[in-house]
Amino acid sequence: MKKDKSINVIYIAGNGHSGSTLLDIILGSNDECFSAGELKAITRDTIMQEYCSCKKIISDCEVWSEVIQLWQANCEVDYQQYQNLRLRFERNKSTLRTLFNRMWPSNDFDKYCEATLQLFQALRKVTGKSVIIDSSKSPQRIAVLSRIVDLRVIHLCRDFTGVLNSAKKSSSKDIKAGIEKDNPASRTWKVVVDWIVTNIATEIFCIGVNSSKVFYKNYVHNPESLRGIHPLMDQINGKESFSTSHMLAGNIIRLKKDLKINPNVGFQYKRLNNNQRALAKVMDKLFAYWT
C-alpha cells in the first residue's frame, strides 16, 4: 500500500482519562489544523445521532455529513464491515495480531488500512486543513496510520493517581451533553490493568515511528511546552481560550466554547479512599516513566 504523504496526522495515543480531548483542542487551535477528536468512533452505532462540537447532531453537521458521504462513496467496505475490522485490529486484546499484521499484513489489514486512508482523504478534502489531529488513543491504531499517512504520534501520559480518580467518576447517558452511554465508576483492578497494558502497548507501537511523550501535568501547567510538537504549534498561548468547531467525539469539554485551561483541574483526588490513594502512590513510584 502506498502512503499518502500529503496527509499529515498528529495522533494522540495512550490511556483513557488522560486529557486527550483537551490536548486535541489545544493542538487544533491553529487555523491550519483540524481537531477530529476520537475518529475511531465514526462507526459507533449511535454516532449519527450524537453531537458534534458545533452543537448539531452529526447527521446535520455540514462537515461530518459531507465527510461521511464522501467516504462512503469511495470506500469498498460498509459501516458494519469497517467497525468489525476496527475491533479486530484496534483493541488491547488484539495487540499481538496487529503487531503481526504490521510486519506481514493480511488482506483484512490491508483492507482496513485502505478504508482508513480514504476516511482521512475525505477529511482533508472537506476541511481543507493540512494537519488532522486524531485523539482515538488506541495504541494499535499507530500500526494502521504509520502505513497510510505522514504520522507524528504523541504518547500522552498521566500519573496513575489522576487516571484512577477520573475513572472513579460515574455519569449517566445524556447525548445532548456529550455523554454517549452510561459510565459507571471503573473497578480499581481494571484501571490498573488498562493503564499498564495501554502504556506498554503504546511504547511498543511507537518503535520506529516519529513520536514523543507528553505529560498531562506538564502541558496543563505550561501549554507553551507543546510548541515543539509541530512547527504549526509555535503560537500556542496558554492564556488564551480554546474551542473546536467540529470535533466528532471525545470528552464533554469538546462542546464548550472559550475553554480556558485551569492548571488545578485534575490534581485533587477527592474520589479516592485511603487504600486507593496508597495503591496509586505505589503505582506512580513503580512506573515513574509514565508519570
Can you describe what's shown?
- 43% of the residues are buried.
- With 291 residues, the protein is an alpha/beta fold.
- It has ten helices and five strands.
- It is globular and about 55 Å long.
- Helix 3 (79-89) packs across helix 5 (107-127).
- It has helices at residues 20-27, 62-74, 79-89, 95-103, 107-127, 141-148, 160-167, 188-205, 216-221, 274-286, and strands at 4-14, 33-37, 131-137, 149-157, 211-215.
- 40% of the residues lie in helices and 13% in strands.
- The chain has a five-stranded parallel beta sheet, sandwiched between helices.
Characteristic terms for this protein:
5 strands, 13% strand, alpha/beta, 291 residues, globular, five-stranded parallel beta sheet
